[in-house]
């Protein structure tokens, strides 16, 4: 994930006295350092993906590289707060871009967070149920496309997500065939047809994605068999190394604690809803409970979970 870009301070300090070739040489000799805030996450030891560029007017070039940049930081969502991740992204942006383009990149980062928060509303009952109904798949696909256009604008949405459109269309086609196929041979043929339609980069990405999926399935199997935390740590350490296994173990504990807090909140909320308070008083009491139980970012997460499950 290592990349080299020109710090605006370098350009400001030396741009007037160095030739273009010398300036490029100086910039490419200065690697962007990993953000220390990310050192306690799964991103430790890496630097941000994405080749951020500007046009002749100094505006940000919006393309799939911008999305790669944003996705890099949001890969640690759940390990750090959104505010902490935005702060890390802002520092990286300021190292790579002049002020106008940096502001535009951060605006896209904020819009991307909004997109991720609103996606559960579009998914409704969730992707698992959507996959059981071909018409539901098409509807969700269309709604997600509309959501992207609504949040980013059509041009920027196409620039950010356009590279995925072919793969998404192929996946939809495969899912429709799988839902209509009754025989094992037909299922296999549909899957093979889909795999052939993938580009070399998409095949590589799919192969890389299967590793974590396989490990997750193995962990689930171990847990179902009654395996302890030591066995799970060993499986993760074998796949990713001991430091990553330690981080994932801490994340497991945080998830358990999060689930406990959510269950406690919901039990107290149910007590309020069963009370003899007037409807308006119940709403105020539930809102007060939510504010007492969670910080503002957690409140958004709880509300999103409630929308999915209701």
Chain-wise SSE layout:
Blueprint lengths: L7 H7 L5 H9 L35 H11 L7 H15 L2 H25 L3 H4 L3 H19 L1 H27 L3 H14 L2 H25 L4 H12 L1 H33 L4 H15 L2 H14 L1
Helix pairs in contact: 3-4, 3-8, 4-5, 5-7, 5-14, 7-8, 8-9, 10-11, 11-12, 12-13
Would you mind describing this structure in some detail?
This protein has 310 residues and is mostly helical. Among the domains are: 123 residues, no CATH class; 64 residues. The protein has 14 helices and no strands. Helix 5 packs parallel to helix 14, helix 7 packs antiparallel against helix 8 and helix 11 packs across helix 12. The N terminus is likely disordered.
**Backbone CA Rg:** 23 Å
Query: How many helical elements?
Result: 14
| Main beta sheet | none
Distance between the termini: 40 Å
Taken in chain order, the helices and strands follow as: HHHHHHHHHHHHHH
Strand content: under 5%
Structural class: mainly alpha
Summarize the amount of helix as a percent range. over 70%
Stretches with pLDDT under 50, minimum 5 residues: 1-5, 7-31, 125-132
DSSP E strands, number: 0
What does the average pLDDT come to? Answer: 76
User: Globular, elongated, flat, extended or rod-shaped: what is the shape?
Assistant: globular
């Amino acid at each position: 994930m290592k990349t080299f870009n020109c710090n605006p301070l370098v350009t400001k300090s030396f741009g007037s006295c160095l030739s273009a070739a010398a300036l490029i040489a100086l910039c490419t000799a200065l690697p962007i350092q990993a953000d220390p805030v990310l050192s306690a996450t799964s991103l430790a030891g890496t630097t941000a993906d994405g080749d951020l560029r500007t046009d002749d007017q100094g505006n940000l070039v919006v393309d799939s590289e911008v999305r790669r940049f944003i996705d890099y930081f949001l890969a640690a969502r759940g390990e750090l707060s959104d505010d902490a991740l935005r702060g890390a992204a802002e520092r990286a942006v300021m190292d790579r871009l002049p002020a106008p383009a940096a502001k535009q990149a951060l605006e896209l980062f904020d819009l991307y967070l909004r997109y991720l928060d609103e996606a559960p509303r579009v998914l409704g009952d969730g992707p698992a149920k959507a996959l059981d109904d071909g018409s539901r798949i098409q509807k969700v696909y269309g709604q997600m496309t509309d959501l992207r256009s609504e949040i980013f604008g059509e041009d920027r949405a196409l620039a950010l997500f356009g590279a995925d459109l072919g793969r998404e269309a192929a996946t939809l086609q495969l899912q429709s065939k799988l839902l209509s196929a009754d025989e094992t041979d037909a299922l296999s043929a549909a899957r093979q047809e889909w795999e052939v339609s993938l580009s070399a980069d998409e095949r590589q990405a799919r192969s890389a994605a299967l590793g974590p999926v396989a490990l997750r399935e193995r962990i689930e199997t171990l847990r179902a068999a009654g395996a302890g935390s030591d066995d799970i740590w060993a499986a993760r350490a074998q796949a990713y190394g001991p430091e990553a296994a330690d981080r994932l173990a801490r994340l497991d504990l945080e998830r358990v604690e999060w689930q406990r807090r959510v269950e406690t909140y919901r039990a107290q909320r149910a007590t309020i809803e069963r009370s003899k308070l007037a409807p308006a008083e119940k709403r105020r009491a539930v809102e007060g409970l939510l504010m007492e139980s969670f910080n503002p970012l957690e409140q958004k997460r709880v509300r999103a979970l409630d929308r999915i499950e209701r």
